[in-house]
Amino acid sequence: MSAQKTVIELKELHKHLSFYNDMAPFPVYDTEYVDAVKKVINYMEDINVNYDALPVAACKHCKSLHIIIDEVENNHCMRCGSINEIEVFINIEKYLDYKDGEQTEENIED
Fold it and tell me: Is residue 109 part of a domain?
């Protein structure tokens, strides 16, 4: 299995952000953020680091990876708006299992 699942998830996020920015009369998502996601994708494709082994944080409610941290260390889900409602997974494999509906406690990192 390839080590590009994180890149694939980021590409899906970029596709989502770009689609809604293109469809709306004014950008729904910050265009600098969309550009930053694209730059991260390009950077990750250029270097050989196994990002799939790194921990992943996702929203408890909408299962989105679109989480930002503000200046006072609060985690904001940019899709549903929840604050500090995240789950941290051991790796992207465990997140994808969770996203597909296999919610188990062993997937979540303490």
Answer: no
Range of the domain at 19: 1-50
Kindly compute the dihedral angle of the four CA atoms of residues 23, 74, 60, 1, in this order, to the nearest 10 degrees: 80
Report the distance separating Cα 100 and Cα 6, nearest Å. Answer: 15
Residue matched to tokens 């200046």:
71
Q: How far apart are CA 99 and CA 92, in angstroms?
A: 10
Residue position matching structure tokens 């409602």: 85
**61 and 98 part of one domain:** yes
Q: Are residue 46 and residue 2 in the same domain, yes or no?
A: yes
Tokens of 15: 């596709």
* Cβ(10)–Cβ(41) below 8 Å: yes
* pTM of the full structure: 0.52
Give the pLDDT confidence score for residue 75 in this predicted structure. Answer: 94
